[in-house]
Each structure stands twice: as structure tokens, then as C-alpha cells.
Design brief:
Layout (H helix, E strand, L loop, with lengths): L4 H11 L3 H16 L2 H17 L15
Helix pairs in contact: 2-3
């Protein structure tokens, strides 16, 4: 099977989650897919705000999603 590189990176990150994190991720994805445009934008902004709070400087562990 030939998988797109970005899809593979996201799936690798998903596989590194524990069961409760996987459940939460799937719930968020379901909400995103079934939501109206306003709900989708709110979820996107919420995720972007959370990601912005993450440490972006040098870190001893590699990113679970992209491997960098």
C-alpha cells in the first residue's frame, strides 16, 4: 500500500497515543466531520491554540507525529 507521507506521519502519531487519547482524538475528528462550518472553525482555532502552547524549541524527544 502506498501511503501519503503526511498521512503516515499523522497515523504514526495516532498510534503513539494511549487508549484514552485515541478515544478523545476520534471524538474530535467525528465532531469536526459532522460539524457545521462554525463548529469546524471553533475546533480548528482550539487545536491551533493548544499547539501554539507546546514547546517549539530544542527538545530531547522527537515529535511523535513527524519524527523531528
Amino acid at each position: 500500500m502506498n501511503v501519503d507521507k503526511q498521512v503516515a506521519q499523522v497515523f504514526k502519531g495516532f498510534l503513539s497515543l494511549n487508549d484514552s487519547q485515541k478515544t478523545k482524538f476520534l471524538e474530535m475528528l467525528k465532531d469536526y466531520e459532522s460539524g457545521n462550518t462554525y463548529a469546524m472553525e471553533q475546533l480548528r482555532e482550539s487545536v491551533n491554540a493548544s499547539v501554539t502552547k507546546m514547546q517549539t524549541g530544542p527538545y530531547r524527544d522527537s515529535c511523535a507525529c513527524c519524527g523531528k
